[in-house]
Amino acid sequence: MAQPEELARRTFITRALTAGAIIPLGSLTSLASEESSPSKSFKPGDWVRDARAQLPATGRSTYFQTGGVGLTPTRVLDGVSDRLHFQNQGPADPRYSPEMASIEPTLRSYLAEQFGVPQGGVALTHSTSEGISIVAWSRDWSEGDEVIISNQEHPANVVPWFVLRDRFGIVIREINLDAGTDLIPEVRSALSSRTRMVSLSHVSRNNGRSLRTDDCAELAGILRRDDIVFHLDGAQGPGCVAMDFSALGCDAYSTCGHKWLCGPKGTGALFVKPERLDDLKLSWAGSHSHAELDYAGRYTLLPTAARYEFGTRALADFAGFQYAVEWMESLGWNRVLNRIQNLVQYAVARVEEEAPLSLASPPSEVDRSGVFVVRLPSGCDATDVYNHLAAEKHILTSPVRREGDLRLAIHFFNTEEEIDQALAAVLSACEAND
Ligand SMILES: Cc1ncc(COP(=O)(O)O)c(C=O)c1O
Fold first, then answer.
1. Cα-flanking dihedrals φ and ψ of residue 169, to 5°?
2. Does ligand 1 come within 6 angstroms of the Cβ of 154?
3. Each residue of 385-399: pLDDT tens digit?
4. 196: closest CA among 306, 273, 281?
5. Atom of ligand 1 at shortest distance to CA of 203?
6. Is any atom of ligand 1 closer than 6 Å to the C-beta of 268?
């Protein structure tokens, strides 16, 4: 029998389809079989041109900054605007409020289906950082407890641990996840009887390394035996690489809508294994975290991951998150991910031809992602190049943690020509720096 969340989702989608305009399937769906296997030709097909027409920034700049902040299709923004105006006719009016109230359960259920999360395992957040903080604060930390992170983390997976170190005296152990190291021996070498959590990037924003699903699943089994929480920071995961929460085996996974999934800014999700909900305790709570409350001290929490949410929420943005993922789904996940891999392969080949540039992201295909990182010749400053390319050429890239490394986040809407253009501009900026 359909669960309430599923019924709400069906009603929502039916309404949106009959109302027209919002659900972005239409003409793109008919192209979904094209390029579903790796293509030898990297020429953008019609589906890429159609998608770019929905992303105005692609006509104004050469956009390799999806890893920082992603692009959102015009039709998704129109959908958000539609929901805001719809709600504003009467936010507390029963002619409008139930439809708005169905947005979150519908989205939770849809994200669960798309990313292999058991139903009840999705909390809607506003960013990856929010999910990471929920997880970081979910344990009763004692002085000397240990967390394992890596040398390839974003500040979002570093600062919370520094704060916990300063508040409670926890110890942070850093493993080496440079391209070419082995995940499991690295983690094993840092484990101790005090390890309480392992928190790593699924895909690193610094070197683009994507942790292998089978390695993660094996690691999850090792950690589970000692009740160590395994958390992945997936800001660069869904939409950039294939991602299946159940196959990864981790206890919790934080991600966002506003990078590779092309959703509105300020949307995110935290995936949690339902059987771990009571182990990952709440540090923030409020109205809507509870199922029952009697004001005399008794309450029960929601039985699902929605317990991590509270307060009044940006429902129209969450509707936009759903429209964006539906747009990606309509383009075809395989088609999108294969195109990213093909473009990255093209970029790898170009960098190999273009001494003195070299590759900083993993050479092996299984460890690669759309986060492509190039090592500049010595003496060439990545921040200077990034600033020059942005201001003079409207080519948006990003410096990363290692000095001299520059990131091109390559999404499906980018083209070979853009990669050529960016690499030529990088080389000439470095030559001018000499
Ligand atoms: C690996 C990683 N984690 C976390 C974040 C922070 O993401 P958000 O802005 O969704 O909190 C980023 C942002 O670039 C990231 O690359």
1. 75, 30
2. yes
3. 999 999 999 999 999
4. 281
5. 1
6. yes
